[in-house]
Amino acid sequence: MNTTVNAADAAGELGPNKALVNAVAKVVMVLAVCLSLYQLYTAGVSPLTALVQRSLHLGAILSLTFLLRPIGPWARKDRLNFWNILDWVLVAVSVYCVWYICSNLNEIFARQGDWLQADVWISVAGVILTLEACRRVIGGVMAGICLAALIYAYTMGDVILAVLGCMLFARLCNSPKSWLTLLVGLAAVGYWLYGIYYEPYLLDMFLHKPYSVERIATTLWLTTEGIFGLPLGVAATFVFVFVLFGAFLEVTGGGNFFIDLAYALTGRFSGGPAKTSVLASGFMGSVSGSAVGNVVATGSFTIPMMKRVGYRPHVAGAIEAAASTGGQLMPPIMGAGAFLMAEFTNTSYLTIIKVALVPAILYYFTVLLFVHFEAQKQGIMGQPKDKLPKAWKVIKGGLHFIIPVGILIYVLMANYSPMMAGFVAVLSTLAASILANIVRWTVNKGVVKDISETRISAGELAKTEGMMIVTGLERGAKNAVMVSVACAAAGIIVGMVTLTGMGLKFSSLVLDLSFGIEALAILLIGAASLVLGMGLPVTASYIVLATLAGPALLDLGVPLLVTHMIVFWYSQDANVTPPVSLASFAGAGVAGANPMQTAFTSWKLAKGLYIIPIIMAYRPMLGIANGKDYELMHWPVIFTWITTLCGLVAFAAALDRYLFRKATVPETAILVLAAGLLFWPDIVLPGGGVIPAWVVDSLGFGLLVLVGVMQKVWRPAGPAPAPA
Fold first, then answer.
1. What DSSP string runs through 27-65?
2. What distance in Å separates the CA atoms of residue 169 and residue 241, rounded to the nearest whole number?
3. pTM over 0.70, yes/no
4. How far apart are CA 184 and CA 159, in angstroms?
5. pLDDT tens digits, one per residue of 470-521
């Protein structure tokens, strides 16, 4: 018995193997640091050919994935076993597949369509590696959708079997959404049977010529029309550099600085900590690529503050979830959306962030309204001024964090490429932090309070700063893994949609179901994004929706930039919309609240996410409407911003039944009518006449003012509000 135990322990099967863990950690650190340095070099010094740039990036990302993420819960990374050996084999195969592309680049370009057998085998291996990385990082649902796309291209187009395969695959992977996948699978089978026996034309729209394994695999791996397509191209250039920028802000203390600044500015107001959460999440989310990561990062500070002053746990978690989701809409980064949109629409990056700024501010204004009304109803007052950090002291202590942001804005305004802007932002953040610590060390005679309370030598300071740089480079590469894997997997879907022509067919289906009504088509896209968002990250959801549903809005006459902005906004809704709202669940975990209760509350707080895109389609909120392009500061655009803001006030007050006090039933009805009128465009009369939007808006504004006056003048009898 003892002999068996000792032999197993010697083989590393029992107990953690510290030597193995340390060795893997060192390999991961070296690989991550090299990847970050490579990305900085290609961003600011010398760019490479698209296929080489993207393949080297993906090779490093796949290697990091297989080293960091186990194949399953049974395969522990701290033991030497078959599964860990398999992971190292997958790393070696990933490296070889990438090396094959780089070493045979000219030959691959020369024999497009006339592939060697080695090309096919390498391509098949690359696709399988991407699917496995997707399953480990994102989950079975995303991998199942990719597998469904491959089956759909390989078969004659029996999309129902492909969807059913996706559902069963997700079920086998123990997906937490397995009950939902099973229902969708049953609905798909029902649709298939109905089409076979009653309406064959329902299936005809999905049929196409089957494609061979050779055509599918080589298209995905040896061209820029599949895995190495536009989504991964954006992830391997713009997105990574800005993720690295966010990582350096985090390791140098920039995240805490922005939270303290928001708390200093809003803490003394009613519901101050909640408003701090909204502002801090806006600051952090604008440079973060993940709403869930934003919830965890800022929520660990803001949610306890909200609970401490009287917010119920599920409300505190919901506020953080709604605010963090808005961070993905806030320029300049927009969770990689700005870069993708610029490429999809062939529009300059600066134009994208200019038109996206005001809608994002309006979204945050809506969340702040709900926060304010909740604070007033609960009697939650602000913090005493003496308990808040001094704004000037915070700014003075973190001035070096504002400098890189200012440099970033200047470089973007000077029309440099986003890659160069990110490169400059990373270097300026690093330089500003090191310089600030050196100045503190010099002034305080060897003491750097941000690093150590004890006196340190110049050599120790240099070592500490060096470790900070290495940590930032390593964290940036690790943070980019999810986005890059999602974009690579989305490339499979986009490649198969393009190869089979499914995009045009899906677009026709949306057009048929919407009966040519823009608002109904937008709502259908919102419903599709909700389903997709249950298994896909925001970036992948946006790419798939833009490919499948975007053409439907274009056919209805919605301008290209407006179409992509609408699709991008709706791709966020799965973060805060039940039954699967990841940001809300993360907020509930931090707050110790009921997940579904938190999800429904965040759904209410984020209503601007559903209303503002519809206004984009009908009114010149982005400077485009009815076939006309306006300057952003032109009166019709400014008027739309003002009326939308007033409409959001009326809508939030109606939904919360509170403006200056609790609203009565007639007041609530008037607020609903006011909101509808303030959102409505021109009204076309049956006889052909038109009531201009400004007349409708004036009526809505008058009703909103009426309710405000009623609430100020008349207070119905009732119980006194409970004390805080």
1. HHHHHHHHHHHHHHHHHHT----HHHHHHHHHHHHHHHH
2. 34
3. no
4. 13
5. 988 998 888 888 778 877 887 888 788 778 777 656 666 676 777 777 778 8
